[in-house]
Design goal:
Shape: globular
Oligomer: single chain
Number of strands: 13
Strand content: 35-45%
Structural class: alpha+beta
Radius of gyration: 24 Å
Order of helices and strands: EEEEEEEEEHEHEHEE
Helix content: 10-25%
Strand order of the largest sheet: 3-6-7-10-9-8-11
Number of helices: 3
């Protein structure tokens, strides 16, 4: 793989601008999609067989710049699954990350996690539907520590990139603590919270909620009229 000509990144320094010359990345890679998806959702989706273009471009992050890698992968949903998700991606829901793999299917060091650019609510909707195909985008950015080592670090990054032959996906379902698991029923959640309240009261020497001052400790998204918050004693 030819690395091409060098490009120039301008960095600000005391007394004027300095330049770090780092190699230009290859314009794109053609990687084979690893059909089987790893992780918790392996039975519900797969990569559509084929070759996928991965673009590698310079970025201006940090004081020396670096590279940005973007991959678009077509995913096939094979059967439905209901999963809770948070609107702001802060709590729970399905998640996919892409990783670059060598010829033997082992992750290439430095490229184990390319973040998906889809909201968990959207992916949960696709999982619930359980049929069809969707193009999903994954990306990562890297920058180097300082001007003195930027060229060396860039060379190592690009050398590792040459090992990539495949692209695969790893799936997971992210959840918070029991009080925030939207996939459990309000009745179950209330029971969990009642147990927590009892344990707190026992630990604090209190026997009833009326004998202490209480406050809620559950994010608004997890609380509802049918799902009271976890109550903790104020000290």
């Amino acid at each position: 793989m030819l690395l091409g000509v060098a490009f120039t990144v301008v960095i600000a320094a005391c007394g004027g601008a300095e330049k770090a010359e780092i190699p230009a990345p290859p314009a794109s890679l053609s990687l084979t999609g690893e059909a089987a998806v790893a992780g918790e959702l392996a039975d519900y989706l797969a990569i559509v067989p084929g070759s996928y273009q991965v673009t590698v471009l310079p970025n201006d992050l940090g004081s020396t710049g670096g590279y940005k890698l973007t991959a678009k992968v077509k995913v096939r949903f094979t059967k439905p699954k209901n999963l809770a998700s948070s609107d702001d991606n802060s709590c729970c829901g399905p998640e996919l990350v892409a990783r670059l793999l060598d010829a033997n299917g082992a992750p290439v060091t430095g490229f184990e996690r390319l973040t998906d650019n889809i909201r968990r609510t959207e992916l949960a909707g696709m999982m619930k539907r359980g049929t069809g195909e969707e193009w999903l985008t994954f990306s990562m950015q890297d920058s180097f520590f300082d001007k003195e080592t930027a060229n060396e670090q860039a060379a190592q990054w690009l050398k590792a990139l040459q090992q990539a032959h495949k692209i695969g996906l790893v799936s997971s379902v992210s959840v918070a603590d029991a009080a925030e698991k939207a996939e459990i029923s309000a009745t179950d959640a209330a029971a969990v919270m009642a147990q927590a309240n009892a344990a707190i009261a026992a630990a604090s020497g209190e026997t009833t909620a009326a004998s202490a001052t209480w406050r809620t400790n559950v994010p608004p998204a997890a609380a509802s009229s049918s799902m009271p918050g976890v109550w903790l004693p104020l000290r």
